[in-house]
Amino acid sequence: MISASQRLWRTSPLTYVALVLAALMSIYPFYYMVVIGTRSLDSINDVPPPVTPGGAFGDNFGRVLDNDAANFLKGMMNSIIVSSVVTLSVVLTGSLAGFAFAKLKFRGQNALLLAIIVTMMIPTQMGLIPLWGMMQDLNWYDTLYAVTVPFLVSAFGVFMMRQYASQAISDELIEAGRVDGASTFRIYWSIVLPALRPAAGVLGLLTFMETWNSFLWPYAILSPENPTLQVSLSFLSYAYYTDYSQVFAATAVGTIPLVLVFLLFGRQIIGGIMEGAVKS
Amino acid sequence: MSLSATTAPPSPAPPPPDAPARRRRGYLLNRLDLKYSPYLYIAPFFLLFGVFGLYPMLRTAWMSLHDWDMIGDHTFIGLDNYSALLSDDYFWNALVNTFGIFALSTIPQLLLALFLANLLNKTLLRAKTFFRMAIFVPNVVSVAAVAIVFGMLFQREFGLFNWLLSLVGVDPVDWDGERWSSWTAIASMVNWRWTGYNTLILLAGMQAIPKDLYEAAAIDGASQWRQFWQITLPMLKPTFIFVVILSTIGGMQLFTEPLLFGNGNIIGGNQREFQTLAMYMYEKGITNLNTAGYGAAVAWAIFMIIVLVSLLNFLLVRRTAK
Fold first, then answer.
1. Homologous superfamily (CATH) for A68-239
2. Domain residue extents for chain B
3. Which residue, A243, B12, B105, B179, is most buried by CB atoms nearer than 10 A?
4. Which residues does chain B have within 8 Å of residue A48's beta carbon, measured at their own beta carbons?
């Protein structure tokens, strides 16, 4: 006990100083966004720069809402729709395929799983240009289909569900279902999906965050009149880069939902990321 | 779990009196279900990935062999796009920029992540979860938001960084006016957003190292520093390779940070000081639709560079960590 506390004493002060510093640096830019977003425009010129939030948020955000060029609310709605649909689909198709790979036997299983793992390593920008052309042909340019349909499935989702299913669900459980005469889909719906819930939750959170934050593709395929939130923010920042209070108020509003989700489920998200790292 | 096992599956309906024919049909259905339903379950992934993932990728290769106008004609020109690429100054410029920003972001970032992961790995650390979450929170903020906030921090007249510099007597820097300064600004956005993520991955790798290795080393009187070099680093090799390859894939595709830093200018600064490869691909393939074939060649060049750099990193890390 003595040696343990001695070791704690010997290593701790500097360790904590370093970690607190790192935590401050992580949080500061986010905090700064809130400070500027809640202050009136002229306080930006203050020397030293302002460090506490002000009371002008309503005024700043009002300018965002009145701003016809940004379509901020529309962007917010679009992002909510797209992120929700994509998340639901990735979790369902991922758990279905993951279950098949982990617990069912079929010809070509290993080769197909390998194919999925390989696709995880492919850079996402590779198909950008032809995909843009395809959207023209489908008449999906500037529609939500363009930013939703290509992302309804995810190789990472299949792989993650497969990993979790193979360790969390015992073969006896599946057998018991079969003996009771349940069809394969019934087994998936009533036994597998409930057992996958923890991993499905993490996959859902990660997918939602990724979709909410994605930029390049929505930027390429949507117009400023029908943007996602991130695209709306970018146009706002181009056009009103001198009105920092307005841009920052909008950015804060677009960021806070995810930070809240993270505060609620951060432990699970971090656990999921760390587990995924060790396994792959 | 056992509860769901006993309650969840539906109990089958009692078999109808006129049994054999129905039972045989049930048996057949059951066989079909066992044999083919797995394909049904993996079909959504492969169908959608085939149409929106694999096909565009192959089409990128096909387009790159053409003089291709997205809304007009295309003619086959073989490898001409690629040979043009080799003597294209703007392409080399984008390549240099991408590697410069990549070096400025990856190297300090991974060193810092290694350092932080080692601190978080201490068994007696208090408030573990708090520190992990605090360090990871930048990754939750969107790239666009990060670029907007950092764009302001690096602003010339009233940005925080120039104010800090003025405290030590340095003249204000025109961050987006020059190559090295814009690279630094963009790399700092990448560093801020990804250090925590890499810290967690490395931490996970460290925690998978068997504890008795350290105990044995401690009994032999090895210092903590020595333990880090002799046990942690060599054992961390696979995780480190994973992190390096992930950073490479991300770094070679860098797009949003430099685009927003330059206020949406696809050429990245007045003199292309910070145009990256991905931005150049976008400029050629989407901003200018009539050079889509050339843009596709840039896309394949990026892919080949990623493969090469990953391979190089892999060999390098494996060699040095031996």
1. MetI-like (1.10.3720.10)
2. 17-63, 81-320
3. B105
4. 163
Greatest CA separation for chain B? 97
Q: How many residues does chain B have?
A: 322
Per-residue pLDDT tens digits for B129-168? 899 999 999 999 999 999 999 998 998 887 888 888 988 9
Domain B81-320, second-level architecture? Orthogonal Bundle (1.10)
Instruction: Tell me whether residues B141 and A18 touch, CB distance under 8 A.
Output: no
Q: Tell me which residue in B59, B158, B300 faces A44 most closely, judged by beta carbons.
A: B158
For residues B274 and A277, give the distance between their C-alpha atoms in angstroms, rounded to a whole number: 32
Instruction: For residue A112, report the phi and psi dihedrals to the nearest 5 degrees.
Output: -65, -40
Beta strands B74-76; B66-68: pairing state: antiparallel
- Which tens digits make up the pLDDT trace of B79-93? 999 999 999 999 999
What ipTM goes with this model? 0.90
- pLDDT at B11 > cutoff 60: no
Closest CA to A69 of A279, A232, A243, A275: A232
Q: In the predicted model, is pLDDT for residue B115 greater than 90?
A: yes
Give the contacts of B212 (CB within 8 A, at least 6 positions apart).
Answer: none
In this structure, what are the phi and psi dihedrals at residue B305, rounded to the nearest 5 degrees?
-65, -40
Q: Pick the residue with more confidence: A25 or B319?
A: A25
Angle at A126 between CA A124 and CA A129, to 5 degrees: 115
Chain B residues 202-231 with CB within 8 Å of chain A = 203-205, 207-208, 224
Check: CB of residue B209 under 8 Å from CB of residue B124: no
Cβ within 8 Å, pair A15-B249: no
More confident residue, B42 or B169: B42
**In the predicted model, is pLDDT for residue B17 greater than 70?**
no
Which of B276, B200, B210 has its CA nearest to residue B243? B200
Hey, is the C-beta of A227 within 8 angstroms of any chain B C-beta? no
The mean pLDDT of A16-27, rounded to a whole number, is 93
The whole-number pLDDT of residue A92 equals 97
Residue-range domain boundaries for chain A: 2-55, 68-239
pTM of the model: 0.89
